[in-house]
Amino acid sequence: MDVTYQKQLFDLINDWRRAPGRAVITVVHDLNLARMYGTHALLLNNGRAVAQGEIRASLTEAYSMDVLSWLKSMLTQWESEE
After folding, report:
1. 5 pLDDT exceeds 80?
2. Is pLDDT above 80 for 80?
3. According to the 3-state scheme, what is the secondary structure of the chain?
4. Does the pTM exceed 0.85?
């Protein structure tokens, strides 16, 4: 799915989810999407759970690194060169 439709779809799902009593389960491989739209995660490796719970803690636990800092460092490629 291209970026435009990806954003539109996830924004629609996120808006729908905000109504009381609603929840959404999605399967994504993009950590940026997981972090941006997710609140909790279940990370699997070969069909086995390797981490679960609050999204930031789950990502850090599963990958044994500060995933948030790494994702932030990836954003530097979009910064304008001086």
Report:
1. yes
2. no
3. CCHHHHHHHHHHHHHHHCCCCCCCCCCCCCHHHHHHHCCEEEEEECCEEEEEEEHHHHHHHHHCCCHHHHHHHHHHHHCCCC
4. no
